[in-house]
Amino acid sequence: MNKISKFKSQFSIYPISKKILFLSKIIIALCILIYIAASALTGWQSDLLFIILLIILVLIWDGLLHRIVSRPIRSISSAAQRMADLDFSTPCEVDVSGELKTLSDNLNKTADNLQHALTQRKELTDTLSHELKTPLGVIRAYAEGLNDCAPNRQAHYTGVIIEETEK
Fold first, then answer.
1. Is the pTM of this model over 0.90?
2. Lower Cβ count inside 10 Å, N or C end of the chain?
3. What is the spatial distance between Cα 104 and Cα 114, in angstroms, rounded to a whole number?
4. pLDDT tens, 104-153?
């Protein structure tokens, strides 16, 4: 990574950050409008209106943050937990764009690679197991033959056992 792209990546604003920044500006503007609207009234009515509108605004803000940030992160986290438990049956799906979508896609690629590696590992284990069974079967047969054979055949059987252990 060259210096220019490294500089841009350190000071760029990601899509989620842009959305939150934009929404926070709207929330500040709405707070000012609520204050102005509440100032039109006098006494406790103005305070009550201000508090009610502010509570509604905070609830809307929380709902938007939940939709933009919390829900996709929770979805990615549960998919990562399933993959940590070696369950690759359900891919990670998020309905946002930007860095969380990229994270989700990378998690799915990692899951595919792990699934492929586990398949290769199983095939290697099966192949090694098969390759070991043949010489071990021969060694066992000749070792059993040593017990029952004539003394002049023991040298031949011992030679076959040594040859098979080399394999």
1. no
2. N
3. 15
4. 899 999 999 998 998 999 999 888 887 777 777 777 777 777 767 767 77
In this structure, the number of other CB atoms found within 10 A of the CB of residue 138 comes to: 16
pLDDT in tens, 33-63: 888 887 787 778 778 888 888 888 888 888 8
CA-CA distance, 60 to 93, in Å (whole number)? 25
The contacts of residue 100 (CB under 8 Å, 6+ apart) are 16, 72, 73, 76, 94
Nearest to 75 by CA among 48, 107, 51: 107
Q: How far apart are CA 8 and CA 5, in angstroms?
A: 5
Residues 6 or more apart from 9 whose CB is under 8 A from it? Answer: 1
Question: In the structure encoding, which two tokens stand for residue 111, read together?
Answer: 């899951």
